[in-house]
Write a structure and sequence with these properties.
ten-stranded mixed β-sheet, 22 strands, Immunoglobulin-like, 433 residues, five-stranded mixed β-sheet, binds zinc ion, Lysozyme-like, single chain
């Protein structure tokens, strides 16, 4: 594996609870890079002439035009008074530090990142002002025809596909500032530690998958645990199988989960904040979904497992049990989820939230485990004194092949058998939307 240092300084952003693209910033006394508030005559400078124009307006001698009005209404109260005139004059005399709208001029993000651009203000002395993002609509250079940036339904900017795009931040008072965003699509990895257990999370988004391109964000309320019913296909191998667009005529299944997990760690393929197509029901729009990879060495006959050697598989099962419970502990902490809201696909079906699958309970029970045991293990991890810690993200080249540097249960079984979880479960619809 070829690890590189953290060259982009990307910050991960948790999905917000804002309901619209217009965001209320409190307080925001904002001045644009192009035109500053107080520049009433729009000559690029704030001078005594501007203060005088405000004075004449407030005295009803001559009136400031509608276009220039916001630049004289310093406190945004809808009228221009002597107070606004004084405010401008204080700037002229150097008595005020000028309020400033602070937006990064340049930013590099990974595909799937969400950001609010860290819009900040300096020297605020005003009430509420709203602002919105205007995205220039630049199209990606990856040949998909998808935009570089999108605005999510939660009011965040999503780094959608590779390329460069410009975001203009505009205040309700008509002021603007710009940020140039470069989006890249690289593989990242980080390590989560819970109660002495380390779990590697490798992230490479399936940017061609229709789910990634068609869906928006949701309020994360829980987690659905799945298992693949596809013996011997490891977590990293699903990337090439599912990073395909059905819409564009490639073979795929119109499915996508947020992550696959095996004995080597987690491979994240969708942003957790975005709707996944994993459970074929309402839980798609409320739950993170991940698949635990089932090991080689047995097969399905219809929906029934045959030739499964519990004793031989126990070592693998113990590893995925630890990895999956650590992963859920991390997600519970990261997204403020209750352990009670971790359910299996089977339980999602019983709750009327998903299709009639039996995973992963049908596999867990071979090892004497239930979903209640699973939730109890996650709960115990969350109660541990060491808590949940997460390392910095590192960038790595390509999608690491687990066979290069890890001993994996998948290695010893040679050819991957051509099972498929959806054939096993009898889904004819091909869609788990
Ligand atoms: Zn499932």
């Amino acid at each position: 594996m070829n690890k590189k240092s953290n060259k982009f300084g990307v910050k991960s952003v948790v999905a917000g609870v804002l309901s619209a693209a217009i965001i209320t910033a409190v307080p925001l006394y904002a001045y644009a890079a192009e035109r500053r508030k107080g520049d009433v005559d729009n000559d690029g400078k704030i001078t005594v002439k501007d203060a005088y124009a405000a004075l004449r307006h407030s005295s009803r001698v001559s009136f400031i035009s509608q276009d220039n009005f916001p630049y004289a209404d310093m406190n945004d109260d809808g009228v221009i008074t002597l107070a606004d005139c004084i405010e401008i004059q204080r700037i002229v005399m150097g008595m005020n530090d000028e309020p400033t709208l602070v937006v990064p001029q340049q930013l590099t993000l990974q595909c799937g990142d969400r950001t609010d651009l860290d819009v900040k203000t300096v020297n605020n002395n005003n009430g509420n002002v709203t602002y919105s993002y205007i995205i220039d609509g630049a199209i990606s250079n990856d040949g998909t025809g998808e935009p570089v940036l999108m605005l999510t339904n939660m009011g965040k900017i999503k780094a959608h596909h590779p390329g460069t795009s410009t975001v203009t931040v505009k205040t309700s008072t008509g002021l603007t500032a710009k940020c140039t965003v470069t989006v890249v699509n690289e593989t990242t990895t980080k390590t989560v530690s819970v109660a002495g257990n380390n779990l590697r999370i490798t992230k490479k988004l399936m940017t061609r998958n229709d789910c990634y391109n068609d869906e928006d964000d949701y309020n994360i309320q829980g987690i659905v645990v799945h298992s693949t019913a596809t013996p011997g296909v490891s977590a990293s191998q699903w990337y090439s199988m599912w990073n395909l667009s059905y819409k564009n005529g490639e073979t795929d299944r119109e499915v996508c989960v947020h992550a696959f997990l095996d004995d080597t760690g987690v491979y994240q393929y969708l942003p957790f904040e975005e709707v996944g197509w994993h459970v074929g029901g309402a839980a798609n729009r409320s739950h993170i979904g991940f698949e635990i990879c089932e090991p080689s060495g047995f097969y399905y006959s219809g929906n029934v497992i045959s030739g499964y050697d519990v004793y031989a598989q126990q070592g693998y099962f113990d590893k995925i049990w630890t990895n999956a419970t650590v992963f859920c502990a991390y997600l519970c902490r990261e997204y403020n989820l209750s352990v009670d809201n971790i359910i299996s696909h089977r339980e999602a079906n019983q709750l009327g939230l998903g299709t009639a699958h039996g995973d992963p309970d049908h596999w867990f029970k071979l090892h004497g485990k239930t979903m209640n045991d699973f939730r109890a293990s996650v709960s115990a991890l969350l109660r541990s004194s060491s808590g949940v810690s997460v390392s910095d993200e590192e960038y790595i080249e390509g999608l690491p092949n687990i066979y290069d540097d890890e001993q994996s249960v998948f290695e010893s079984f040679g050819e991957v058998p051509q099972y498929d979880m959806f054939d096993v479960w009898g889904d004819n619809s091909r869609s788990l939307r």
